[in-house]
Design the sequence.
């Protein structure tokens, strides 16, 4: 048997069994091949069967599904005809799997080392000492901090990016010939994702491992894969080299997918930054939100948001970006009154808002609507869509019966949904439809400001792009202002006028969204922008070359004043940046940056001497 | 095997939802409790035969008891008291428990502390012992029985509904309702409660079964329903001598208790498996 094709799948069919005895095709007539040492990307949106195919390579199908036809040959083994016992030896030794969410894939009660060397022990591949040596070697190759001792820690002590790399170490410890990655970086922040990707790439290339990489993110495909297969509804739409598929897609669906990942920046000019107070719909000044004991000044000791000042010009969109845990969602909850602030002021349409939603007037609540993140949790499953929308109409506008129904239909038209949906329950809708209903519900109140908290995060790129388009359109026709909270910088450029960058509860910068890639910026903004994968080969190598050589320590909130970003900053000035309040520069175009460096330094980071290594300061 | 299951599927009434099936069975027992005694051929206390523990015959279909009274008539009255007392006490325990359980997800933390500790306190006393104490102190009127059973099973309903409501209260649609300014009652009744209907129904059914078993236990010990009134547990107790003669008078009430509790349990199991 020729080993040229490490993986060969021929006419694979996988069906799911319905409770009534019928079957549903999940994967239909899929054929693919991977040569030794190459990386194949399986691309598709949710429900396209990409994970099902990836798992079938390990001889595994989910309960209730079955391989109904076709042949899977992996490293010379015919996977479909293997017995349970044979499969057990095959998995782990020949092929291994890296799952999407490392946070839940580790057993919290066992140390990392115990879990990482377990595959080697289970398969009798090597002795404990050998396995431990191998593990440390892998930790080093995957650029994990403290490779000798990290194994003694427990999952809760490590960050998501570290766990993802540890899971890769677990998959690699038995020296498999093939590794299947199932969206391993989807749950990570961009700044972490880039490090994980670089680590994966280096290890795979070094060991000549054949890989299958399941993802929906084409920019990642461009970095890591050689070949790609585009899937939809369980069928192959297109396959070929990555360069060809991304550069010259033939299939209509692939073209749509590539277009959705290349959302163009907005065409209309951004609303001006420096606007008079009357032109702003919302103004936050020095807002502090926190928990824990009160300090002498009566402020909470542990801060989630610290002295946050922001403004939203009327009829425009303010984007809020930052990594997970930076306080983005808390900001949305604070503005909507669900999380009262301890100090500061929020002015909405010229009126000061009460911290708690219960103390606000009905009119204030009506004009400020929140569109929450998770499409599956935002609609009450016990209510029909019509009831959900009509409740808002009754509550705020006193509409009843036919009048409310007519208005609900008008709202569905506005968000491009058929009227028939009014009689459906949320469980019968797709993710994109639910998010549109969610939007229609907010619009039903006829708001002035809509808080959008990660509304596209859980959606497939094509669907998300359509939602962003809808947002922009509604803004044009209804003159609504938005606060758009996201970690997706493409989306920010597509819909936002301005953008505020949040880091560890501080606004480090508020600037024009179109100037994100040029001009003077806070070092964190630059790190964030440079971490967003671009759809061109070689981006990863370029981006890594620009980065600080040292591994970034996890964000730690500093209580002793000074810049929060100090320990990760590549422009830090020890002795200055770590004490006292951070000065805020206001640029001529109205942008504000909180940094000790001068605007000139920030505009030309290359002209600045590299930062002193962290350890020399700390010793 | 698969042929058998399809056979069973064909037998099922497809038009009934699981909730309707539970309510249907429960409705049957309730109707029996309310109307049954009207069809009783004799008064429950009437001695109709000199023969005690008489076997089944055309004169008294289910035989006679230890005093020669008609067992069929007494059974119909016993079902009335068992079902009605347990229904009322379940309504009390689940009403209080569910309302409190949902309400404490929205109220300040100290309310949950107070309610939670109180419920833990009740929960920590063995239920039979608790019932014995209360009845010894306050007498064995029907109202005392209903309230005792009700209080004993409130903590269980509270815990279950609170656990369910906590999960739902974290959902974004509740956040949206709070941000809209909806009142607490609206959120409890319209937003939270409809989403816990299925598990709650199962819980209420279980509380009812527990109540039947506890009441029967109490009556068997002579502390429950007192003569001249009669319930299933006291029927077993007064006829326990009949065990020696293999009399139906002791076996039949036991079977009715079994059919009542196991039947509801089976239907509830069917709902949760859906």
Sequence:
């Amino acid at each position: 048997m020729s080993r040229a094709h490490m993986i060969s799948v021929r006419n694979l069919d996988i069906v799911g069994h319905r409770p009534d005895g019928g079957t549903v095709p999940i994967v239909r007539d899929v054929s693919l091949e991977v040569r030794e040492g190459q990386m194949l990307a399986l691309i598709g949106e949710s429900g396209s069967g990409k994970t099902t195919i990836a798992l079938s390579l390990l001889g595994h199908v989910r309960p209730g599904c079955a391989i109904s036809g076709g042949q899977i040959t992996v490293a010379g083994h015919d996977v479909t005809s293997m017995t349970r016992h044979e499969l057990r030896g095959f998995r782990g030794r020949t092929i291994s799997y890296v799952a999407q969410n490392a946070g839940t894939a580790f057993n919290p009660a066992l140390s990392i080392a115990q879990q990482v060397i377990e595959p080697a022990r289970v398969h009798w591949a090597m002795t404990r000492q050998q396995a431990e040596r191998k593990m440390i070697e892998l930790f080093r190759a995957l650029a994990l901090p403290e490779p000798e001792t990290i194994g003694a820690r427990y999952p809760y002590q490590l960050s998501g990016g570290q766990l993802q790399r540890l899971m890769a170490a677990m998959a690699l410890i038995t020296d498999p010939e093939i590794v299947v990655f199932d969206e391993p970086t989807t749950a990570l922040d961009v700044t972490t994702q880039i490090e994980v990707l670089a680590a994966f790439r280096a290890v795979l290339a070094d060991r000549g491992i054949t890989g299958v990489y399941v993802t929906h993110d084409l920019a990642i495909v461009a970095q890591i894969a050689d070949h790609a297969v585009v899937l939809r509804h369980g069928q192959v739409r297109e396959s070929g080299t990555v360069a060809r598929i991304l550069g010259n897609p033939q299939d209509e669906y692939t073209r749509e997918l590539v277009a959705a990942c290349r959302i163009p920046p907005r065409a209309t000019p951004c609303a001006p930054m420096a606007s008079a107070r009357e032109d702003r719909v919302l103004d936050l000044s020095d807002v502090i939100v926190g928990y824990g004991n009160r300090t002498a000044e009566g402020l909470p000791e542990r801060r989630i948001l610290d002295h946050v000042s922001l403004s939203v010009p009327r009829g425009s969109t303010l984007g809020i970006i930052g990594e997970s845990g930076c306080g983005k969602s808390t900001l949305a909850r604070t503005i909507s009154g669900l999380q009262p602030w301890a100090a500061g002021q929020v002015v909405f349409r010229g009126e000061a808002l009460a911290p708690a939603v219960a103390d606000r007037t009905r009119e204030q609540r009506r004009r400020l609507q929140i569109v929450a993140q998770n499409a599956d949790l935002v609609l009450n499953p016990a209510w029909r869509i019509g009831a959900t929308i009509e409740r808002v109409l009754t509550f705020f506008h006193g509409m009843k019966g036919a009048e409310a129904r007519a208005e609900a239909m008008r709202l569905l038209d506005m968000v491009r949904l058929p009227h028939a949906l009014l009689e459906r329950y949320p469980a019968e809708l797709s993710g994109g439809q639910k998010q549109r209903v969610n939007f229609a519900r907010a619009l039903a109140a006829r708001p002035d400001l809509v808080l959008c908290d990660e509304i596209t995060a859980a959606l497939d790129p094509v669907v998300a792009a359509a939602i962003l388009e809808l947002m922009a359109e509604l803004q044009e026709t209804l003159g609504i202002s938005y606060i758009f909270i996201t970690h997706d910088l493409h989306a920010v450029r597509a819909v936002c006028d301005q953008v505020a960058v949040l880091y560890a509860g501080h606004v480090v910068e508020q600037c024009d969204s179109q100037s994100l890639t040029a001009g003077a910026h806070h070092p964190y903004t630059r790190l964030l922008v440079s971490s967003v994968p671009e759809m061109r080969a070689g981006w990863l190598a370029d981006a890594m070359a620009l980065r600080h050589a040292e591994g970034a320590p996890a964000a730690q909130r500093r209580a002793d004043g000074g810049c929060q970003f100090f320990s990760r900053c590549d422009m830090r000035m020890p002795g200055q940046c770590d004490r006292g309040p951070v000065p805020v520069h206001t640029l001529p175009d109205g942008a504000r940056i909180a940094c000790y460096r001068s605007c000139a330094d920030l505009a030309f980071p290359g002209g600045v001497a590299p930062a002193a290594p962290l350890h020399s300061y700390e010793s | 095997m698969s042929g058998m299951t399809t056979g069973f599927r064909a037998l099922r009434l497809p038009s009934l939802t699981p909730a309707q099936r539970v309510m249907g069975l429960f409705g049957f027992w309730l109707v029996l409790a309310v109307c049954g005694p009207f069809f009783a051929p004799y008064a429950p206390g009437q001695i109709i035969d000199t023969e005690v523990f008489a076997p089944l015959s055309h004169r008294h279909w289910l035989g006679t008891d230890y005093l020669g009274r008609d067992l069929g008539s007494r059974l119909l009255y016993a079902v009335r008291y068992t079902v009605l007392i347990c229904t009322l006490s379940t309504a009390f325990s689940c009403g209080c428990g569910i309302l409190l359980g949902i309400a404490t997800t929205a109220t300040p933390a100290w309310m949950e502390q107070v309610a939670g500790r109180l419920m833990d306190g009740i929960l920590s006393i063995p239920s039979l012992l608790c019932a014995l104490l209360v009845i010894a102190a306050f007498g064995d009127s029907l109202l005392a029985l209903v309230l005792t059973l009700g209080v004993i099973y409130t903590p269980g309903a509270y815990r279950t509904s609170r656990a369910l409501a906590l999960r739902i209260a974290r959902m974004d649609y509740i956040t949206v309702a709070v941000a809209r300014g909806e009142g607490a009652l609206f959120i409890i009744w319209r937003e939270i409660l409809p989403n816990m209907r299925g598990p709650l129904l199962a819980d209420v059914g279980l509380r009812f079964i527990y109540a039947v078993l506890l009441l029967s236990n109490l009556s068997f010990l002579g502390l429950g329903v007192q003569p001249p009134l009669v319930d299933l547990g006291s029927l077993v107790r007064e006829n326990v001598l009949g065990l020696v003669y293999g009399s139906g008078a002791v076996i039949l009430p036991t079977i009715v208790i079994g059919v009542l509790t196991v039947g509801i349990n089976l239907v509830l199991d069917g709902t949760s498996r859906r």
